[in-house]
Amino acid sequence: MYKTMKNKAGILFLCLALTQCSEGTDLMDRPLHKNNNSFQNEEHRLLPMDGAHNTRELGGYKTTDGKSVKWGMLFRSDKLSDISEADQKYLQALGIKKIVDFRSDEEKTEDPDIIPTGISYVEMPISVDGAMRSKIESVLKGETDKEVESFLIDANREFVTNYTNVYENFLRGLIDEDAPTLFHCTAGKDRAGFAAAISLIALGVSREDVIEDYMKTNAFTEDRIEEILSQIKLMSLYQADAEILRPLIGVEQIYIETAFETAEEEYGSLENFIRDGLNISDEDIQKLRNKFLES
């Protein structure tokens, strides 16, 4: 029976991870950052969405040469398969013109994005952590002795070693197109987290600030993380050790540090990784900065 309950807990986790809760935020109460200085701050970085939990602005970060990332140009998120009609209107009002989806084909088939009218949709699949569900179930069933953190440590290493073509195409799109862009994966923390990191590094934001942005997932999704863990405990009659999953549901600094260190080992520095690993020239970087930065 215990094994059955643990299996149910794993299934419940998958359902919770794939289903968003709608709370119905009025469209008029949602911040539009681009032309309103009162919203251009940390308090309003997380966007209020009915059907997503980790949608946020990347504007306002300072670069090492004293400039700032423009508001209303770059957004990161978790999946958009459960967004409400009000959410769709909100994304349109934010001026977003392109959505980039880093999820695997299997993930997109199970939970296809809802794309608002007038916004283009680009698929850039990365499957490295798309199999996380089966790994979570194996952890709950006690079928693996691996440290749970190792799953995402390995995934972040593979972003650098196996998916340079995807991240090159992503940055190339930012450089070549005049389209405020939202990019996402399933939870908006790993594949999208690395995309945010290399974008901000390319723009000249400090490593420390990039890591700080990466770690904000834990604060912005704290309530959801606790909800998932509580439900797993409940469905297993408090026999499953749900806490062991916390490092997979949230983020740890070692994840992004592993990606950075892998890039530095292979290319000498993060800047060289962008230049040589992703084939983004100094001229390209200047174009990117001209488009996304302001004094």
Describe what this molecule looks like in 3D:
The chain has 295 residues and is of the alpha/beta class. The protein has a single domain (37-131, 148-218, 252-294), classed as Protein tyrosine phosphatase superfamily (Protein-Tyrosine Phosphatase, Chain A, Alpha-Beta Complex), CATH 3.90.190. Helices cover 50% and strands 7% of the residues. It has helices at residues 2-18, 85-93, 105-110, 132-140, 149-162, 164-176, 191-203, 207-220, 222-235, 246-249, 253-267, 270-277, 282-292, and strands at residues 56-57, 68-69, 74-77, 98-101, 120-123, 181-184, 293-294. The strands form two sheets. It has a five-stranded mixed β-sheet with strand order 1-3-6-4-5, with helices on one face. Strand 4 (98-101), helix 3 and strand 5 form a beta-alpha-beta unit. Helix 5 (149-162) runs parallel beside helix 11 (253-267) and helix 6 (164-176) crosses helix 13. The radius of gyration is 19 Å and the shape is globular. The termini are far apart.
